[in-house]
Design goal:
By secondary structure, the chain is mostly helical. The protein has 2 domains: 3-284, no CATH class; 316-548, no CATH class. Helix content is 66%, strand content 3%. It has helices at residues 3-19, 22-39, 56-79, 82-88, 91-96, 102-134, 143-170, 177-195, 216-230, 261-284, 308-313, 315-319, 323-333, 348-351, 355-367, 372-387, 390-401, 406-409, 415-419, 422-425, 431-460, 464-488, 492-504, 525-548, and strands spanning 43-46, 50-52, 239-242, 250-252. Helix 2 (22-39) runs antiparallel to helix 3, helix 2 (22-39) crosses helix 6 (102-134) and helix 7 (143-170) packs parallel to helix 10 (261-284). 40% of the residues are buried.
């Protein structure tokens, strides 16, 4: 069989394996939701007070930008599990025995990622057609103007996203939660590099299109030029926003995007860049050999005390055991850990185990594995919260102090799935409410410990409104982590959503989105305390229903 056919069958098999999952329907649903945000005018493309008339050219351009910008962000977290899935299912070990090379494999995974994201782009294209029909312009549909911006800009943008996901999975440092957080800042930087040239280029932006990953500059610079032709007083401002925004008061007829040779050349360059990223990933890919770490050498690790890992993972079970379950586990794992002796089913010593033991065990699990430098940075941020002026500590220092522990919160609600210990832990009497409470309290303690510098500062200043906002944030963050982890079964959802929300809300002090209450004007503590309660109730109910049907 030729290499091209092998590549085709690898991509096809991987793609079909993904589309048969329930999660794939959710990804397609997200594309439909993006289309709805355009229809409901929650996504705004404005040039000062101007917006385009709802024709095919305008809707196609708006949806094209929406797809290329947001799918390049969300799509990364959707497809960043291709290599990890092969590790977990042991398919990787089988592939490692075949003549398939590392570059061939990473290229196949990139194409598979691209196929998944391309399906989302195509669904969004169909949603674009529905938007124009719903707005009563069905008799004036121009298919080229309606679909081409999304297909050209969207597909090229997600091609780079697909390759970046493979590269991040190939790098040991970036394949986990660190990579999930850092990608958001990389995405923001790439968007900013292109947007920085907006309003500095004419209708033919020349070399600037090669730094325009999503097509934002290419499209909006031409819109700016058209508005200038009809209004000499136009101030040159341009905005692409999602959420509440001052509505436009004027309209103009957008005649469509002018496709120059430079535009097509820049998109071809993006596709070539995606291929280069896939080949670069091959340099760091370990080919499922645990003895190889690519360019990273295996570090000497601190020796693990006998039974420490097993004790930590099964700490909730040890605190409130089911005697029969623990007995069977002891028989199966006596060579791994020395577990404490099991009391008989009616033992009062076991039944009186305090919830504090569970909380301490969960807290140890959260903190386990973090190096001294992580703790040093957390301590430095704590000092910044105490030593900075109160206004600065509340608006700046706490923002970073509560971003730093994101990887401590993200496994909440997912650890039993990750380590396959759910059947053991939840066999204990009243294990669900006890463990649920312990996980949440441990998450709140992490928030209190890392943010207590500001809490003390607010208490000493008798700023009780600020203290209420601080308490609301400390309660809301772990509640969100626990709810998203319990429902999705993965830590990526929280890491992606929390980082994006942190950037939009607390960092920019946006009222309604500022769950940390960084300013008096943007603080809404009552709303986030209520949201924390709702999230906890939803997570607990979901876990109870899931266990009842398992």
């Amino acid at each position: 069989m030729s290499r091209s056919r092998v590549l085709y069958h690898m991509v096809r098999a991987d793609f079909l394996e993904r589309v048969r999952r329930y999660s794939f329907l959710l990804t397609l649903g997200f594309s439909v939701y993006l289309g709805y945000t355009v229809y409901a005018e929650q996504v705004h493309v404005q040039l000062d007070k101007y917006r385009g008339v709802d024709n095919s050219a305008w809707l196609g351009s708006v949806v094209g930008l929406t797809g290329s910008v947001w799918l390049s962000l969300i799509g990364f977290y959707i497809v960043k599990n291709a290599i990890q899935r092969d590790r977990e299912t042991r398919v990787g070990q089988i592939l490692a025995t075949t003549p398939i090379g590392k570059a061939f494999y990473t290229l196949a995974k990139t194409l598979s990622n691209f196929a998944v994201l391309a399906a989302m782009v195509l669904v969004l294209a169909l949603a674009t057609l529905g938007i124009q029909l719903a707005r009563g312009a069905g008799t004036q549909i121009d298919p080229v103007a309606l679909f081409l911006p999304l297909l050209i800009f969207g597909l090229c943008a997600v091609a780079v996203t697909a390759a970046l996901a493979v590269l991040f999975e190939s790098l040991p440092v970036l394949r986990g939660g660190v990579g999930n957080v850092l990608y958001f800042f990389l995405w923001t930087a790439l968007i900013a590099i292109g947007a920085a040239s907006l309003d500095k280029v004419g209708p033919d932006p020349g070399w600037h299109v090669f730094t325009d990953w999503t097509g934002l500059v290419s499209v909006m610079s031409q819109m700016q030029a058209q508005v200038r032709r009809i209004d000499p007083l136009y101030n040159g401002s341009a905005a692409f926003n999602i959420g509440p925004f001052n509505p436009a008061t004027k309209t103009f007829l957008w005649t469509g995007f002018h496709w120059s040779p430079e535009i097509f050349l820049s998109r071809a360059a993006l596709l070539g860049f995606a291929v280069l990223l896939a080949l670069l990933a091959a340099l760091f890919f370990d080919r499922f050999d645990p003895a190889r770490r690519g360019w990273l050498k295996t570090n000497k690790q601190k020796p693990v005390r006998r039974g420490e890992t097993a004790e930590l993972l099964l700490a909730p079970l040890l605190a409130t055991p089911s005697a029969q379950s623990l007995h069977h586990f002891q028989m199966a794992s006596h060579s791994i850990a020395h577990l404490p002796p099991v009391s008989h089913p009616g033992s009062r010593q076991v039944s009186r185990m305090r919830i504090s033991a569970l909380v301490l065990a969960e807290l140890r699990l959260m903190l386990k594995g973090h190096a001294w430098w992580w703790k040093a940075v957390a301590a430095a941020l704590w000092i910044a919260c105490v030593a900075s002026p109160l206004t600065q500590a509340r608006s700046d220092a706490i923002v970073f102090a509560w971003l730093w522990p994101v990887l401590l919160w993200s496994p909440m609600g997912t650890r039993e799935t990750q380590w396959n210990t759910g059947a053991l832990i939840f066999s204990a009497p009243r294990a669900v409410p006890r463990q649920f409470l312990a996980i949440y309290v441990a998450g709140v303690l992490v928030a209190v410990l890392t943010g207590s510098g500001l809490g003390l500062h607010l208490l000493m200043a008798r700023d009780f409104d600020g203290l209420a906002a601080w308490v609301a944030g400390a309660c809301f963050i772990p509640a969100m982590a626990l709810a998203l982890g319990a429902v999705s079964g993965t830590r990526k959802f929280f890491e992606a959503l929390y980082t994006a929300w942190w950037y939009i809300g607390p960092l920019h002090h946006i009222r309604g989105l500022d769950f940390m209450g960084t300013t008096a004007q943007s603080s809404t503590p009552a709303g986030y305390l209520a949201a924390a309660a709702v999230l906890l109730l939803a997570a607990y109910s979901w876990r109870k229903v899931k266990l009842a049907h398992s």
